[in-house]
Amino acid sequence: MTLMIESRIQLVSGHTMPLLGFGVYQNFTTRASVLEALRAGFRHVDSAQAYRNEAAVGEAVRDSGIDRGELFITTKCISKNHGYDSTLKGVDESLAKFGFEYIDLFLIHDPYSGTERRLATYRALQDARDAGKIRSIGVSNYGIKHLEEITNAKYDMPAVNQIELHPFCQQRPIVDYCREHSIVVQAYCPIMRGKMDHPIIQTIAQNHGRDAAQVLLRWSLQKGFVPLPKSATPERIRSNAQLYDFELEPEEMEQLDGLDRGKEGSISWNPVDAP
To answer: Which active-site residues does the annotation give?
Structure first.
């Protein structure tokens, strides 16, 4: 398949999701940044209740003039708000803040609340989906144990698992499990929070006349992940979308694959082993 900025992936929910997303964690100019991202060709924005910028994302969507149906917007509920009733309330609050009639993808942000509350939260999201408020349900930072809980409860499998993912932290057992169960893997921290000075990354970037972030994002796309780069710098937002006029060679992919340090390579909270 030839990758393009318009490329989408089919989810088990029946909906499609753009393969490149724009993250807005710790973005304090969210409206301006999202508008810049939309101008650059992004059609997928990843927010969360804990980011406190859903309203700014919604404002940018309206101000962009782009049809809402062309866009894919994600939000998430963090563990302190988990539970059946609190999740339903949170879905309504997110809809109100965005100013939307529906949310494309709603994720459980993390697994820290324990089995009972995780499953109650998931059940609430299924009911919100059945009510037309959410189109697809997913999880974030879920390890295999957390995913198996959903299977054992006889709930629908999540459409997405969003985890930390880059050459230093490849989380292969989780990725393999997701692939076996048709769960699309989204990659957060795909450009490693700018820590891209490894000689292999730099050499590959020089070989292609690209910057290191573009190489890491292209690696993620060629691995079949959905990377979610974040930036508040207009030039960087634009360059993070310019990924479709070069391709990494198989040996370059192998070199980047060889950088995996397992859990030691993590640069974020990465709570996939939460009890």
So the answer is: 51
